[in-house]
Task: structure prediction
Amino acid sequence: MSKNILIVDDSKTVRNLVAFIMKKEGFRVITAEDGLDGLEKLYSSEFDLIISDVNMPRMDGFTFIRSVREQEAYRDIPIIVLSTEGQEKDIQMGLNLGANLYMVKPAQPEKLVKNVKMLLG
Result:
């Protein structure tokens, strides 16, 4: 059975690229343009994994991750942060809030796919 992935990024180009990579690997993908949109999509469907950016309007990725992790039903969904913010403080913040992995853009597609498959078991 195909796994569902939620991609949250304000860049349409990044959303489309990551969606293309994941669909090519056989995953079902739904995209969201910021954290608020991501929460709406999360509540309306079931996801096996989330890939989220950090810098987004309306609700940034850190607030989005915090909101996801505060809810019992979503506590165990693996989250990968995919962001241009590569400073140690950003990486630590993402991981402390509950992200399983933090990857800095531009990430190699092969590495992203490998990490997604690893987190999905």
